[in-house]
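Hey,

The postdoc asked me to send both predictions to you directly instead of through the lab channel. I've kept everything plain text so nothing gets mangled by the mail client. Protein one:
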Amino acid sequence: MLEDDAINDINPIVPSNAYPSGTNTIYYRIENNDNTTCASTGEVQLTLHDLPEITPPTDPFKACDTDAIDGFTGFDFSTPQAITIINTLTQGNTDYQVSFFETLANAQANTNVLPTIYTNTVINNQTIHVRVENINTTCVVYTTLDLEVVTAPQAYPFTNPLTFCDDDNDGF
C-alpha cells in the first residue's frame, strides 16, 4: 500500500499480494470503528528473506548393527557419511545450521535436538526430522531423513585351525 493509498483509503493490500525478497515499506491506515472519518496512517518496514534452499535426502543414513544384532545401533552425525548427507542437503551453504529431531513438533520448536551419536528408537528403520536454519535470517525449512540399521555379517570362530605347507621354506 502506498502512503497516498493509506491516507485516501484506497487499494488495500489483500492477503494474496506477494512482495519480493528484500525490504519494502508498507503504509497502513487505522480507522475508528465508530467514526471511519477518524483515521491515522503509519508505515512499517517489511523485510522478506528467502527460505533456505535444500536438497532433501534421497538415500538413507546407514549404520551397521555390530553388537547384539537387535536392530538398534548408534548413528554418528559427525562421520564422513553424515557430513556428506548434510553437505548435499545444504548444497554446501555454510550459512545453514542443520539439526536432527525425533518429531516434527520438536524440530519446529527447536527442542530435544538429537545428540551427535543417536541410537534409533524404532527397530531397523526410523525416519527423523531435519531442521535447516539460515543463521543470518533465521528462516527455517524442514525435511526428513531415513535411518537404516544394516545387520553386520556374523563371524563365527573356526573350530579347526588352518594349516598350510610352506613349499619353498621361506617362512611365508
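Protein two:
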Amino acid sequence: VLFINQHAESFFGIDLKSIQSKRAPDFWVNPEIRVLFISELIQKGKIQNKEAEIYSKNKKVRTVLISSICIDCQGQKELFRIYNDISERKKSELELEHHRNKLEVIVQERTLDLMNTIERLKETQSQLIQSEKLASLGILTAGIAHEINNPINYINSSIVSLESLAKELID
C-alpha cells in the first residue's frame, strides 16, 4: 500500500501509517470473487465498476463498485483502486424488489377476485335473462289465453241465450 485517503481510512477502520509499504489487507467477503477480479485485471489491465462485497471496519459487509487499473510508478507496476460504496443503493433496490413482488401478489389476488366477480355477474345475468324469458312467456300465455277466452265467453253466453230462447219457444 502506497497511499489511502482519509475516507478509506475511516471506511476500512485502518490508518495509512499502519499499512503503508505492506501488502493490502484482504477485505473481500468472497475469496472467489477476488480471484476473478485479479484474473480480469491481469487480462484486461483494468476493471471498471465491478460489484463486490467487502468488509468495512468492524467486519461490516458493504457492497461496493470497484474500479482498478495497473499503472507504472517509477518503473514498477502498481494498482490504483477506487471503491464506491453502493450499500444504501443496494438496500433500496432490495426493498424496492420486495415491494414490487408484494405488489404483484396483490395485483394477482385482485385480478382473481375480479375474474370471480365477472363469473358471478355472468351467472346472474344468465339467470336474469332466463327470468325475463319466463316472464315474457307468462305474459304471452296470458295474452293468448285472454284472446281464446274472449270468443269462448262470447260463444258460451250466446249458447246460454239460445238455450233460454229455445226453452221459451218449446214451452
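Summary for protein two, as requested: The radius of gyration is 47 Å.

Thanks,
C.
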